[in-house]
Amino acid sequence: MATVIIPTPLRKFTNSATRITILATTISEAIRELTESFPDLKKHLIDSDGEIAAFINIFVDNEDIRYLDVGKTELKDSTVISIVPAIAGG
Amino acid sequence: MYQFIQFSKEELTRYNRHIIIPEFGLVAQQKLKAAKVLVIGSGGLGSPLLLYLAAAGVGTLGLIDYDVVEDSNLHRQVLFGIDSIGLSKVDAARERLLNLNPHINIHVYETQLTSKNALTLLKDYDVIADGTDNFPTRYLINDACVLLGKTNVYASIFQFEGQVTVFNYLNSQGERGPNYRDLFSVPPPPGLVPSCAEGGVLGVLPGIIGSMQALEVIKVITGIGEILNGRLFSFDALTFESRTFNLKRNPTNPLNGTNPTLTELIDYEEFCGIKVVEKSIKEITARDLYDWQVRGEDFQLIDVREPLEYEEVNIGAQLVPLSGILDFADSISREKKVVIHCKVGGRSAKAIRQLEDRWGFQNLYNLKGGILAYISQVQMPLGSH
Q: Could you tell me the pTM of the whole model?
């Protein structure tokens, strides 16, 4: 089972969970699984066309999924998925 | 031309602990002294950035900010103390930094960075450090750096989370690294990501992240170590976990992808979907306010500065610091005219906007030029010394 690291700004939508274990075997399934468990996450991860939003980044073991197989990127049990949102505070 | 940089005896003593590091040495110190770094924003990130860059001996430091120091800044903006409250940030910063290191030059720009002035302000600096607090300015700085070919040492924070990277870096092979638009091609929809003013930030976090930003500025200038080029460092203060993600240039980047379409700076508030037309607010001059007082006109006078500033000098107004103005709304007259003032007019304008937007007030007047204008144009106020 892969692990998703939830960044600070999104933890209010995951009951403060910082890491979530998922059963999914691809990124698209992982996002579906996450947003089904935590529906409020949806608008932070998915754009109006149902695609993975361009204003966030998803990394699989430190590599950007845009340069892997995007939604079809496969996940192993040891995979760590990081969601990196835009933050602008200074 | 750092090779020709010389140091006084005092400077050699000051920088001794740098110079004796074998990987650093006199050459790196010369590079620092020859360098010109522009820090944009002197808030939570700007504070440690400026302190460490000044201390390290960066020869020319530029600083852009248009805000004044408020009490609520001090839990994280360690550049300032209570003596700075009410002062412009750039003036307070300059004084503090020259006190720390008199061997450097400091140029301050008390202005908002805009699409009109950005290229002019940035062009004379070698490295830009972005410590601003909003998406439009971050895209503006990024685009200006790419158009000018400048390295942008970037950091941002939110609550317990910090990010650091070096954008648009030209490596020794002549290859240009990724920039902000490669990472975030579009900003989040307005309102989705709160600012620190809305969402809060743990005060020590910008201390950690801003210090890392200063580290990367120093590495970029001196060429030591492995620069955070093409890598995004992310730190979670709650779990104490950090990760470093690999970034790549995106061929669809409109600035410098395969088919560039952005060749000049744009309207970044519009780009970020937060363009608001600011309503003009009603103003009163110090002379007119004085006439009202002499005539015995019935009006309410409110001072939105901090208690320490009020103690130092006031004109007999009710003291309600800006941070508490919305909670005070019930005690503000809706019938009489109400004059709100601060030191020079910035905070009182904010107070009026907040009261008008939130509670629909229509009888509020901003004292033009604040208490300083009143003192210089009218009379010495009550309690002045």
A: 0.79
Look up B196 and say whether it is catalytic: yes
CATH number at residue B113: 3.40.50.720
How far is residue B292's CA from residue A2's CA, in Å, rounded to a whole number?
A: 71
Q: What is the mean pLDDT of residues A31-52?
A: 93
Proportion of chain B above pLDDT 70, given as a percent: 96
B196, B209, B302, B373: the active-site residue: B196
- The total of other beta-carbon atoms located within 10 Å of residue B239's CB is 12
Active site residue B145: no
Range of the domain at B201: 35-271
pLDDT at A3: 97
Residue A63 near chain B (CB below 8 Å):
yes
Give per-residue pLDDT as tens, B226-240.
Answer: 999 999 999 999 999
CATH number of the domain bearing residue B305:
3.40.250.10
- How far does the CA of residue A74 sit from the closest CA of chain B (Å)? 18
- CA distance to B49, B201, B281, per residue, from B234 (Å): 18, 16, 42
> Which chain A residues are closer than 8 Å to B43 by Cβ?
90
Catalytic residue among B342, B344, B352, B364: B342
- Nearest chain B Cα distance for residue A29, angstroms: 22
Mark whether B209 and B323 lie in a shared domain.
no
The CATH fold of domain A2-85: Ubiquitin-like (UB roll) (3.10.20)
Chain A residues in contact with B244 by the CB 8 A cut-off are: 62
- Count of other CB atoms within 10 angstroms of residue B367: 28
A59 strand-pairing partners: A64, A82
B229 shares its domain with B346: no
Residue B73 lies in a domain: yes
